[in-house]
Amino acid sequence: ERRRKSSRTSNSQSAEQVQGCIKAEKDDAHGTVEVQLERRRRSSRNSNSQSAEQVQGCIKAEKDDAHGTVEVQLVWQHESAPARRAIGSRGSSLGSGLERIRSAATVTLDNKGVAEKTEKRRCWTFLNSLVMNPGSNKRVAFEVFGLLLILYDLVWWPAQVFGFASKPFTRAILWLSSAFWACDLIVSFFVGFTIIDQGLIEMRVSKIARHYARTWLPVDLSLVLLDWTLNALVLLSHHEVADFGGGTYLEKAQLLRLLRLLRLFKASGFISALFDRIQSETTRILVRVLKLLVFIMLINHLIACSWYEIGINDMEREDTWVKANDLKEKGAVYAYTTALHWSIIQFVPASMEVVPVNELERSFTIVVIMSAMVIFSSFISTITNAMNQLRNLNSERNAELVKLRRFFSEKRVSASLVARISSCIHQATKLTSSRVHGEDISILELLPASLKCDLAEEVYAPTLCAHPLLLTWAEYYPMESKRLFVAARSFSLGAKHELFHAGQVAENMYFLSSGQMVYVRDDRELPHERPAFVSPGQWLAEPAMWIKWKHVGQSSSTENCELVLLPCDSAARILSRSNASSYAGARRYAQTFAAYFAKQPDRLSDVWPDMDVIGAMVSTAFIKEEREMLRQEAASTTNSTTGIAFRRRRTPSFNFAPDTILEEHHHKTLTALHERVRKYSADGQNRKDTLGIGSSDSGSSDDSVVPAVVAISPVVAQNSASPLFAIVLPGIASASQNLAQGSK
């Protein structure tokens, strides 16, 4: 009992001692931690105050160096955090790309279906590359030739009732027509079609085939089979392999070729599209009248053939117009011209010696006259409206000329002076006629967004891409460039009109498409500076796009001018959003522009035609983007060639023509990018000398991108005996090394 009590007492004392020690240690540690935290707070405050003073000193020094004249727009200012995130994302994407390649290789080894799906996808890609645009020049020429063959069938086969003999030329046209329509049947699977409600062109082979099968494929296939069947019968009869009733049955069977005229319904859409290509209103009116004349002549041709067929239908009858005029003895040409003459006089108030002599001919004549009343009256009214429309195109100008001639007559102006004044007025009228702008056409608002983008690209791209930066940027970002073209606006400026004046805040950049402008800088230090003339293909107020800017001079037109306006705020947002990274070409160009003119503020003006400096700025701006694209293209080519090499070993029976084409395309792309990067790097010293500032691409040389190309290029020529990871890992390793060097 005593031992138990003493043990309990000692245990409680030991526990109290242990708790006291732990508490003392906690107090000491807490005090130590508080002291350390306090020291860290003080050092952090001191470092922050020193950093703030250094930053303010740097900003003040930069402002002093720039003399307060060059300040980059907020959208172009460098953001370090997003740049670091972009670099980190590129590194993570490269790592994830390596994992995807390894996982894809493993899946391909285990599952052959993945390779087959990839192969099908590549085959569809290859087929889609063969699709023609329905509005391309090649397709239009193909359709025009087909339209000529349809017109030939429309004229030749009905005229066979007159007994025209077959000649080598007609036989050659027969076989050429059959071969053409057979080729057209196949080519139709590779011609895109327009989705009218969306304004888009479908260029996928699967969609084109489905659309063609639902529309014209049954008709085209039936006509082609019928055509070649008749050709086979002609060959059998010509070589006396088979007898078709002395040729009478075969001649009647040839009239089945008239079913080719069903293609006229298909050609009507093409004729409308071809007519829409004509832009001149005068030409459109004349073409419309010509089309009516051709239509009337074709109608008369068919009526003449039908009229002769009625006359020879029953050869036993003596009361026919053919026998009454003894046409059988006068030849086929005379018979055709007589029938055509009779057909034409049914449309006009005229007469001739040919008249119907039996009840069938009389009934046919009545039907033709009733139809001619409607057709010819519509024809006359259409031509009259066309002539009135043609006359009204220049009604206002004609009214002014009438007043002018009346003035000359009343004032008795001499004839020589009238001739001089008239010629001068005609020339001045051509010069003063202003163009129509898209903003003036309200019906264009009904177009879908895709068609608006395509229209703006064709209208404004030739003018805006005169600037080297916009031309290069549009090559990098073709989809974003369409948004830039949509933001542009065109307008006219009369002679002696002012565009902007000195001291005005610049909000737009101007591109001159026609005419001539003069710019006079308002500079007190250089009062006798010569004015600068701006010609088509040049621009004004470029600094407003990159820096905060006020016009330092006055610009006005010397003659009637057409300009394209590019709003700086909208354009800067589009240019900056295309690539938000720090190496984006537009951002680097803005920073290079500001740095260059911060050193030479006296050269900064609204008109600045030094193309050497602009070219150096563009090269400086896009060299890093070229290198980044080269790395990405090298990595993507490595991924694609790995799968191709594996499938070649696993499935040797497949046709790899699409893969070969894709390999060649990637190889050409890599070579082109490599050459451009090499050129940019070789011109590095010239850029430094031209710009007079430090190169923004220092720290990276052309050699840093060579291993990627060297590692990828042999893959194209790699044979099937190469191991899988011998293809994958060297390219990835070199790409990782290049990315690490570029990040530094």
UniProtKB/TrEMBL annotation:
Gene3D superfamilies reported in the protein's UniProt record: 1.10.287.70, Jelly Rolls
One cellular-component annotation, GO: HCN channel complex
Membrane-related topology note: Multi-pass membrane protein
Region (Disordered): 1-57
Subcellular location: Membrane
GO annotation, biological process: regulation of membrane depolarization; sodium ion transmembrane transport
Any Pfam family hit: Ion_trans
InterPro entries recorded: cNMP-bd_dom, cNMP-bd_dom_sf, Ion_trans_dom, K/Na_HCN_channel, RmlC-like_jellyroll
Domain of life, source organism: Eukaryota
Major site of localization recorded for this protein: membrane
Biased composition (Polar residues): 8-17
Keywords: Ion transport, Membrane, Transmembrane, Transmembrane helix, Transport
PROSITE patterns named among the record's database cross-references: CNMP_BINDING_3 (PS50042)
Domain Cyclic nucleotide-binding: 499-575
UniProt-recorded Gene Ontology molecular function terms: voltage-gated potassium channel activity
Transmembrane segments: 140-160, 172-196, 290-310, 364-387
PANTHER family linked to this entry: I[[H]] CHANNEL, ISOFORM E
Name this polypeptide is given: Cyclic nucleotide-binding domain-containing protein
